[in-house]
């Protein structure tokens, strides 16, 4: 065999395998044609025989038991090689086939018509066989070729059915993957290409549309977009890879800059063209990849990641960023791992940061802060994991874990004579639980703890997510006797009307206002105003992030009630906190004793009888 024959045979086999027909069960659609062929020739045997590398495999057969015969000396193999119809009036009289397995099995007559794909690959033959030698009329041969054409129409229809999107009529994701792999074989290795993913609407927009409109609306959106993309880019190159997503590859040689310019220019046109655009914000992700080394699914995933970066940044187009992708994938992994951490019993713990009454210098409370020791990644700070845990279904379970653990600790401290108020952070999702107040009270009651030994910290933004529901929950918590604090005050909406209505005992001024307070007069004015405003509305004020004495002095003079920050202590492990607390009490008692010893002793007046 010559090299070009080898290549052709390899491509032929590839075309055959792509159709996924080999070794599939029989199907009536094919059997019907095979029966017609046998009947037309008035012969006992007919088959749709596909030529694999070393065998003829029968997708459909009449009059034969077996599903496969060796390719060696099988006439259908010759049809596949030549792509021509073949008639052998008498196998025993044929120099090549007289000693073939078919002849040995008693077959004398063969007629086969080639099964040729639209791309010109011959998959095998539709054949009829007889046990006696026989002549063939031109009409018979013509009919056999027509029937072979019907077999091919059936094969290609089945193939297309799984590869064309029924709404847009564009090739789908399966076809994209297949064509992508073909392209990698065709194009020179090492060439850089760009995969482009066009996303028609954000997940929220889709959810709104699905809720408000029937599915025809989305179909129209998709069809408008498909028509526009088809006109602009050429439908043959565009793939409909997900309900509202289209993918294509930029032409070889197109640079990233050029590609971005074209997309930016065209997207404005796209928005105008999509009739239903008032709910749709198209976003485009571009993923560069190296031909020969790329994996199609991973290229699509990268383009998807870029689409989300574009949506997050409110821009029309974004290029895949390995950094953003790594962050996202880390978040995704952490989210899965956190569920295990909650169940593990040894990955999570609470640390406690003291809260100090500024006037007396006494430690009056502590904030419980969550810590996670990941089994392979080590310590992960709450600033990294809390934001996405709060937005997941794990928010409730996390707060439940924190509540139970902190109250166990509170019980232990109370038993040892340490009477502190403990503060816990709760998320927006917790405020939507209708029974939060009930569950918190129940956890306290179960341990015989007073309600006012607990404070729940809630950020302004958490309340503002669903103000009505949040307020109902907060009212119920306040009514139960558990204290409430507004956390990170000043960073959110800081709406005065909400602060006035908020049943909070405490306002915690965010550390971003406090940390560099001593050097910024404008900040000082702001903090003074926050303190007096909050106090006028009946709240105690806590300053977070106090890191030095100058700041503490300023806060004392401004009338702030309490302070929390590294100046006093960082968040401490339980035992360290206890030792710190005892040490502080001892030091304060000693100071008190010294102060008292230094006091002038008043003359004792004798008691009157
Ligand atoms: P937060 O509730 O505002 O807690 C205060 C944060 O400021 C803590 O960070 C604390 O370590 C830090 N901090 C305290 N004093 C200072 C200071 O003087 N200087 C500086 N630079 N930082 C100080 P942490 O522990 O990393 O917690 C970060 C955030 O994570 C918390 O902010 C809170 O929003 C959230 N978080 C922590 N634990 C939990 C939890 O159990 N549940 C929920 N929902 N959120 C939590
Ligand atoms: Mg807090
Ligand atoms: Mg805070």
From TrEMBL:
Protein name: EAL domain, c-di-GMP-specific phosphodiesterase class I (Or its enzymatically inactive variant)
Pfam families the record matches: EAL (PF00563), GAF (PF01590)
Gene3D superfamilies from the UniProt entry: 3.30.450.40, 3.30.70.270, EAL domain (3.20.20.450)
SUPFAM superfamilies: EAL domain-like, GAF domain-like
Source lineage: Bacteria, Pseudomonadati, Pseudomonadota, Betaproteobacteria, Burkholderiales
GO molecular function terms listed in the Swiss-Prot or TrEMBL record: cyclic-guanylate-specific phosphodiesterase activity
Cited InterPro entries: Cyclic-di-GMP_PDE-like (IPR050706), EAL_dom (IPR001633), EAL_sf (IPR035919), GAF (IPR003018), GAF-like_dom_sf (IPR029016), Rev_trsase/Diguanyl_cyclase (IPR043128)
Annotated EAL domain residues: 331-585
SMART domains attached to this UniProt entry: EAL, GAF
PANTHER family from the UniProt entry: CYCLIC DI-GMP PHOSPHODIESTERASE PA2567, CYCLIC DI-GMP PHOSPHODIESTERASE PDEF
Alphabetized CDD domains for the sequence: EAL
Organism whose genome encodes this protein: Janthinobacterium psychrotolerans
Lineage: superkingdom: Bacteria
